[in-house]
Structure to design on (109 residues):
């Protein structure tokens, strides 16, 4: 979990992405990590499909101000369309007293 958080924070401070407002970091069943910058539409799913790495196990979405949030609804819909098992993806979110984990499916109704 901490590794995904650290990668997201680094991505938001990288020179190439300094103007980015949000980053989503994905960890897949092939043990690969992908970074999606300002990707509200879920375009990263195209890259995952090309690489045949469609099962996302964990993700975290962080805004420039450090706030942890859900990825957009469209992003989550594209994830599930990519691989039905992605409804069970663990999303790292901010809870009242620390980080919590929710499944994508818990946020789709």
């Amino acid at each position: 979990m901490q590794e995904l958080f650290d990668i997201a924070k680094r991505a938001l401070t990288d020179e190439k992405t300094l103007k980015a407002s949000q980053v989503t970091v994905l960890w897949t069943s092939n043990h690969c990590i992908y970074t999606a910058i300002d990707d509200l539409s879920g375009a990263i799913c195209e890259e995952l499909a090309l690489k045949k790495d469609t099962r996302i196990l964990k993700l975290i979405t962080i805004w420039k101000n450090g706030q942890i949030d859900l990825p957009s609804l469209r992003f989550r819909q594209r994830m599930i369309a990519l691989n039905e098992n992605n409804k069970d993806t663990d999303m790292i979110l901010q809870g009242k007293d620390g980080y919590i984990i929710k499944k994508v499916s818990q946020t789709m109704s």
Remarks:
- Helices lie at 2-13, 44-50, 73-82.
- The mean pLDDT is 93.
